[in-house]
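Morning, I've got a small favour to ask if you have a moment. I've dropped the whole record in just underneath, so have a look.
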Amino acid sequence: MIPTIGMVADVTMRKNSFADYITDDVSEAIKKAGGLPIIFPTSDSKYAEDFLSKCDGMAFLGGPDVDPILYDEEPIPELGYTYRQKDELELELVRQAYAAGKAIFGICRGIQVINVGLGGTVYQDFPSQSDRKVLKHFQAAPLSVTSHHVNVMAGSHLEKIMGDYPMVNSHHHEAVKDLGNDLKVTARAADDCVEAIESMNSDQLLAVQWHPECLYTKYPEHDALFTDFVNRVKKRMQNVDAV
């Protein structure tokens, strides 16, 4: 049985509404790794349980900024556009998927949604809110090329996949601030920006701040993130079947 991977569609802002869409990059990377992507539309969070029942693992992808109201902050001027309905659906999916023991992978906005869903907060605009001189986290170069290094924690799951000092791309201004429950930071940029988080005592959850779906065809270490994710999903499926 091919493991099914649930993903909520990205959104684009129209004049008076939002429209769901999905790029091929993540879907193709997951299929190459042996998974079958299932795309969920942005819907009321009450459908989270039904959506989750259709998939074996969950991937949380890029998209708009996370509404700070949902982690008890007021918006600052540097905040980008938000879509609270998408936030509420994904936050509920994070909580239910984690509680159900499903394997989880986060990309860019996904690391922020996962962190907030598990009780953490994010910088609404890391460049203006950090007290350090920051790197260029919103690269002008295409996302198909890397732009800066990250320092990976020794002994982490991420280190086993990518080594201790990989190059990544960068396309964000929000970033993890206060860490959510049962999570640990496993990679940072030179300016201390959080670049990866994992579940504390298992390999259930891994999320990165960059976009490996734009790099996986050229860089084996980024392709390995998707292979690892699908393998983590399969492992948890086998554990369920063995019970």
Notes: The two ends are 18 Å apart (CA to CA).
